[in-house]
What we know:
14 helices, mainly alpha, globular
Amino acid sequence: MTPTLAIAGRELRAYFTTPVATVFIVIFLVLQGALTFNLGGFFDRGQADLNAFFTFIPWVFLLLIPAITMRLWAEERRLGTIELLLTLPVTQAQAVIGKFLAAWLFCAIALALTFPFVIAVNILGRPDNGVIASGYLGCLLVAGAFLSIGAAMSALTRNQVIAFVLAVAVCFVFAVASNQVVNDFLSQNAPSVAAFTRRLAIIDRFTNFTRGIIALRDLIYFASFMVFFLFLNTVLVDQRKAD
């Protein structure tokens, strides 16, 4: 565990020693604020809750999280430092998990900085803070799921732009899997595929958290999702480290 935490600390420091952290956090907060209060009609709804905030956050993550993950492995391979990293007394799995934990903690910090939204709804009314806490847990799990996808896509190529595009595309597939238009199309043309994709839909699982429902099956889903893509990440690093 110590090598994993050492790598996580190294990666987390790297975020804050470059403009990446500031740019990501500023864009994230501005986007969430604009979408929640303007497009989401926060004040027009007349309700003290964060439903508008939670509605948009998966889509903001869909665009921003690949920007974090695109450099995780692609940059290591481009600079040739991946060989140096993997010659250290760490396993490939420890390196993969360490990088993932750093990115996940970074997202958790960005989420924590949205605390003014929580304060605002508590000033304006009496929201169910248990539901809000559940929603934030869901946000963190969605971030973890998208991060695991992005990390795997970054290990697939040495080009950061390609890694970004691939991550957005794969995350988008899992995000729209529960969309009614997509489901209607698949139900008419491939019913078995429609049932399968619905089970993999991230947004449906996330919606349960925003309603205050923390179900064991949803926790298992997100845990399994992240484990699968982190395993894929490890396999890809092993296969492409010499490229």
